[in-house]
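$ run holo --ligand "fe (ii) ion" --emit tokens
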Amino acid sequence: MTSSDIGEAARTVLSTADARGKAAAGRAVATAWRDGGLAMPSRVTLPDRPARPAEPPLLSPHAMRKRKITAAPAGRIALLHAIAHIELNAVDLAWDAVARFPDAGFPRAYVDDWVRVADEESKHFLLLADRLEAMGSRYGAMPAHDGLWQAAEQTMDDPLARHAVVPLVLEARGLDVTPAMVAKLRSVGDDASADIFQIIYDDEIGHVAVGKRWFDYLCIQRGLEPVSTWQEIVRARFRGGVKPPFNVPAREAAGFSSAFYGPLGEEYEAARRDKR
Ligand SMILES: [Fe+2]
Ligand SMILES: [Fe+2]
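-- output --
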């Protein structure tokens, strides 16, 4: 490793195109950080879009096929592939969070938190990539969702918005939907995949907690009221809406109370009723 600070190291991970190479580079940087071998992030120019492998081809979300979890492997492989793609994106999102906001006044604990998240996202990606290969497929074998980086692009200017949207909307949504996937995978006898999803779920509670911790930190720094601030940012910057039902116990375990997202969930339902 030639980087001298964690910002430069983050840029190296973001600029690595090969998927396993990116995940492995991230794990190595995380180890170097924990060993004290890297300084706090300096001002570095990060890529607007991270480097990605030539495969999978990226398609618009509308072009993606629905994946069903059945005893036949095809649907499960498609699901694992889709989640692997999300995890690879999460690797980049976490390294971007480490290095994107050197002027925000974050302490060392901020970098510790996001480096740990980044390392776990690499672990998630590699578990899924290995599982895909064990099932006779591989990451890159089918098209994937383009547009996952959108949330990053829409929040490049402000760490408060980044934390409001990426961990507290997107990663929190993962907590809502993952338990049903674990149960379904077990019901068709795929314990190997279910075990991976369970690891991801347990780790992701921590990622939402990290998001909440630094969202709160910025609110205090700026003298903002957290609940209304979060709601205003999400309404302004996140198109998809905040979709119920919520996994309240998991969100609670992450320190994220329904006072934040409950009202936006009601707005989502009301908008859906109006459309009918
Ligand atoms: Fe993850
Ligand atoms: Fe995560």
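-- notes --
Residues 6-39+72-275 form one domain.
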